[in-house]
Design a protein that fits this description.
The chain has helices at about 25-40, 50-65, 105-115, 135-145, 180-190, 205-220, 255-265, 290-300, 315-320, 345-355, 385-395, 425-434; strands spanning about 5-10, 45, 65-70, 75-80, 95-100, 120-125, 150, 160, 170-175, 195-200, 235, 245-250, 305-310, 330-335, 360-365, 365-370, 380, 410. It has about 425 residues and is an alpha/beta fold. The protein has 2 domains: about 5-25 and about 250-434, Alpha-beta prism (UDP-n-acetylglucosamine1-carboxyvinyl-transferase, Chain), CATH 3.65.10.10; about 25-250, Alpha-beta prism (UDP-n-acetylglucosamine1-carboxyvinyl-transferase, Chain), CATH 3.65.10.10. Strands 3-4-2-12 form a 4-stranded mixed sheet, with helices on one face. The protein has a 4-stranded mixed sheet with strand order 5-6-8-7. Strands 13-14-16-15 form a 4-stranded mixed sheet, covered by helices on one side. Helix 11 links the parallel strand 17 (about 380) and strand 18 (about 410). The radius of gyration is 22 Å and the shape is globular.
Length: about 425
């Protein structure tokens, strides 16, 4: 459905029931698209996510010269033409690639262009994308011989990259601001002329790196696991071809699942999520959010809930948004790096919860939320960030007035197109069926 600029959320008046079909994982879809492009044979992705982020990735791959055939109704993407891709050597003008505000597409395409055998590529995004961390990846690729020019502020988009220069060697990388920087470098490293050793500087969200390593293995490249207890963690990547599967099945999105795992906490009832793998069974670290839900359910009333979201930080907004309904304070930590995502998520969440009358202590790496009576008839600012819209969509499902009338309005609900275009349609369908 077409969403208005301001969407009043209609509360549930009965417990939720039934099932919700989740979209495919954005993280896996864009990683699999990159690995398919790096492979030598055609790949079909099934269960793929069709959203703004993945469509930007697919459009850029087409611009580079890959054949990408997508069927949204079937949830499939077929990528082929790897040997015919990339710019012609005599192309005079750089190929323009637009990444919008898609962090995965931005980092992965930067790495892909660096690994290209030829051609010149110019990558840019929206104004907010020009503020997101890129410098460590840029500097690492330069160390490996890739000519990269920052056309604006040094270390940020827009970039111009020349293909055909990726060589081997040892490089240091600080991926503390985004694990995507490390994932991007690891995925293209097998395509270098010589082996690459990546020495990791600082901390990194390991769950997303583990996802990348396991997905690379499913595409035929297995890397030795680094010693996670060593003073300096390093990855040794030999030059080798990818041997891609003909068909690869994308898991349902564990981050998207967090909203519907939380919904029964807000409205009662229960909800099945077909195909979603339990914590530890799939590739996605965010599946661990289910354990957070279980701890919320088991917490004695009045006792403070302490949760470290460093490894699953995309889901922290889901818990923070419903904290006003919990029986006691909620302390959320491990989220400093989310200040440099689509928006400053820590400050934004503190601001919106205070708008709703909550007592919020904001620190650099944490939020402490003490429930207070919720203010009615408030408009939630989403900052163009899909996760604000969806998280507060779940809070708004609570029947605050007891009569099923809306008390919370979401500004720019259409920003969910980034990863979950039909989120509010699905939420409304569940409400009507309950």
């Amino acid at each position: 459905m077409t969403l208005p600029d301001f969407l009043p959320v209609i509360p549930f008046t009965r417990p939720v029931r039934g099932s919700a079909i989740l979209p495919g994982s954005k993280s896996l879809t864009n990683r699999a698209l990159l690995l398919a492009a790096l492979a030598e044979t055609p790949v079909t992705l099934t269960g793929a996510l069709f959203s703004e982020d993945t469509q930007l990735m697919a459009a850029a791959l087409r611009a580079i010269g890959f054949q990408v055939e997508a069927d949204a109704a079937a949830g499939t993407v077929h990528l082929s033409g790897q040997h015919q891709a990339y710019a012609e050597t005599n192309s005079a003008d750089p190929i323009p690639l637009f990444v919008g505000l898609a962090g995965t597409a931005a980092r992965f395409l930067t790495a892909l262009c660096a690994a290209a055998p030829r051609g010149t590529y110019r990558i840019d995004g929206v104004a907010q994308m020009r503020k997101r961390p890129m410098r460590p990846l840029i500097e690492a690729l330069r160390t490996l011989g890739v000519p990269i020019t920052c056309l604006g502020e040094e270390g940020f988009f827009p970039l111009e990259i020349k293909g055909g220069f990726l060589r081997g060697g040892t490089v240091s990388l600080d991926a503390s601001e985004s694990s995507q920087l490390l994932s991007a470098l690891l995925m293209i490293a097998p395509r270098s002329r010589e082996p690459i050793t990546v020495a990791l500087v600082g901390s990194v969200r390991w769950t997303f790196v583990e996802m990348t390593l396991r997905l690379m293995a499913e595409f035929g490249v297995t890397l030795p696991r680094p010693d996670t207890h060593a003073a300096t963690m390093s990855f040794a990547v030999p030059s080798q071809p990818y041997c891609a599967p003909a068909t690869y099945v994308i898991e349902p999105d564990a981050t998207a699942a967090s909203y519907f795992q939380t919904l029964p906490l807000v409205v009662g009832g229960s909800l099945e999520l077909p195909g979603l793998r339990p914590p530890g069974a799939g590739l996605q670290g965010d599946s661990a959010y289910l354990e957070v839900v279980r701890r919320v359910q088991a917490r004695p009333p009045g006792k403070r809930l302490d949760e470290d979201f460093h490894e699953i930080s995309d889901t922290f907004l889901t818990l923070a948004a419903i904290a006003p309904l919990l029986k006691g304070p909620t302390h959320i930590s491990g989220i400093a790096h989310t200040r440099k995502q689509e928006t400053d998520r820590v400050a934004g969440m503190a601001r919106e919860l205070r708008r709703l009358g909550q007592d919020v202590i904001e620190e650099h790496d944490s939020l402490t939320i003490t429930p207070r009576p919720l203010r009615q008839d408030q408009v939630i600012e989403t900052y163009g960030d899909h996760r604000f819209a969806m998280s507060f969509g779940i809070l708004g499902s609570y029947d605050l007035r007891g009569d099923g009338t809306p008390w919370l309005t979401i500004k720019d609900p259409g920003c969910c197109a980034k990863t979950f275009p039909h989120f509010f349609t699905l939420l409304d369908t569940l409400r009507r069926a309950s």
